[in-house]
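Anyone up for a design puzzle?
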């Protein structure tokens, strides 16, 4: 099934998703971990698959890395362009289209993307052998997700044939998100009173399992397709 870009264009039109302070983004914990991992891998020239509205791209630019990014959603790329202020090459592209990767890069960053793409292995197969890879996949479901992952073993089974994975880290979702008031939080607790696990997750108990998070994995693209 082909991903319909209008779904994501509408998301960016109706939900700003552009945070002046990246720390306010609900994805900040995983973005922060990506920057740290890029530094550990000594990445210098990054191509981001699914740049969204540019929050992570701006963080990588601020860390002193050369950055390019693309997204299927035109609205996301437009907002990313506003944030990057001409400091990066940004374009509309499809993760499964080989021409999207006709740029110079030593590292692929692919965060909050693979779970949205039916042909995710086809996308990974387009990445050039030998490049460094930093990706995330979720352990929670969402309307536009086509898969989720229960544990590290499932991540390895799905992507280990194409990426020589040397590290998988669990990143927990924030309990307290940008714009959430105390009354909103208490309302969420009240709505979850009949779902013990969700309630416990919102209270910080087994937060990764019961509130949600991401498996951040990194390594090197193999020579196999």
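Challenge accepted. My sequence:
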């Amino acid at each position: 099934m082909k991903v319909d870009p209008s779904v994501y264009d509408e998301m960016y039109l109706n939900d700003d998703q552009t945070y002046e302070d990246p720390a306010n983004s609900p994805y900040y914990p995983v973005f922060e971990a990506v920057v740290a991992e890029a530094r550990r891998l000594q990445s210098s020239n990054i191509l981001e698959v699914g740049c969204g509205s540019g929050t992570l791209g701006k963080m990588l630019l601020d860390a002193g890395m050369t950055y390019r990014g693309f997204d299927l959603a035109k609205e996301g790329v437009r907002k990313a362009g506003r944030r990057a202020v001409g400091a990066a090459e940004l374009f509309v592209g499809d993760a499964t289209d080989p021409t999207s990767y006709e740029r110079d890069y030593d590292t692929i960053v692919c965060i909050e993307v693979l779970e949205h793409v039916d042909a995710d292995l086809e996308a990974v197969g387009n990445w050039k052998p030998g490049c460094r890879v930093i990706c995330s996949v979720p352990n929670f479901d969402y309307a536009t997700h086509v898969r989720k992952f229960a544990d590290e073993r499932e991540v390895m089974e799905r992507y280990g044939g194409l990426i020589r994975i040397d590290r998988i880290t669990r990143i927990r979702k924030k309990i307290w998100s940008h714009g959430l008031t105390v009354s909103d939080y208490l309302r969420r607790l009240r709505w979850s009173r009949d779902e013990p696990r969700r309630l416990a997750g919102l209270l910080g108990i087994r937060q990764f399992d019961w509130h949600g998070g991401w498996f951040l994995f990194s390594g090197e693209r193999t020579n196999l397709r």
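A detail worth pointing out: The chain has a mean pLDDT of 85.
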